Structure formats: C-alpha cells, structure tokens
Inverse folding.
C-alpha cells in the first residue's frame, strides 16, 4: 500500500464500514470478518475489528462523542443535508451548526459515527 491511510478500530467493523460508505460515498475495496478497506476520495481508511477479548467497552445509544483524541479526520461531501440524514439513519450525527470556533457562514460541521468517533464534514462549493 503506497497511500496515506488511517486505521479506525471498531467494536462493530461491518456497521462502521457501512456508515462510511453510505455517508461519505467511500468505496469498499475489500472486506472480511476483521477488516474493511475503504477509499474515501483518495484516502485509505481501514476499519479494523477490535478482538472480542479486548472489546469490553459498551457503545451507548446514542454514542458518546469521543472528542478528546489526538486526530480528527475531515471528509468532503457534496451535500451536507443528505450526509446528515444518512448519518442519522445509521446511528451517527452531523451537527446542524458549524462549531463555535468556525465562521458562522462556514460550510464545516462536526459529527460522530455510531461508535462516537468525531469527524469533520465540509461541503464542496
């Protein structure tokens, strides 16, 4: 693999991969019971199933936002409204308003996936 990529560890890798495919139009490149390789507009995202003996944390419904992390991935979308509806139907969320530190007319929003991982979304002009 000769591209920039990230690994997202998941409690339910299949569900999380579906979220990223449906919300961000990611292309599913490969999938097995432990991994899903996605191409998100040229960026490789690997969703990796946490082994069952380590998978002890319970995911709440709705999930708690995990904002205190070292990295936040940002994704471009062509239609924020459609992405917001897809995220909600799949157990995640994209905020209605830009974060307080962003310009009010910004087309940048924060959201989270079904496991609480926070991401950014920007609509393409």
């Amino acid at each position: 693999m000769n591209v920039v990529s990230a690994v997202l560890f998941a409690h339910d890798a299949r569900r999380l991969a579906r979220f990223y495919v449906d919300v961000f139009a990611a292309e599913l490149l490969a999938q097995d019971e432990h991994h899903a390789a996605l191409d998100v507009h040229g960026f490789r995202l690997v969703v990796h199933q946490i082994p069952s003996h380590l998978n002890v944390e319970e995911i709440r419904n709705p999930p708690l936002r995990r904002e205190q992390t070292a990295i936040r991935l940002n994704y471009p979308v062509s239609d924020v409204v459609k992405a917001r509806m897809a995220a909600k139907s799949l157990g995640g969320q994209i905020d209605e308003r830009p974060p307080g530190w962003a310009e009010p007319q910004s087309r940048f929003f924060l959201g989270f996936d079904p496991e609480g991982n926070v991401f950014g979304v920007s609509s393409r002009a």
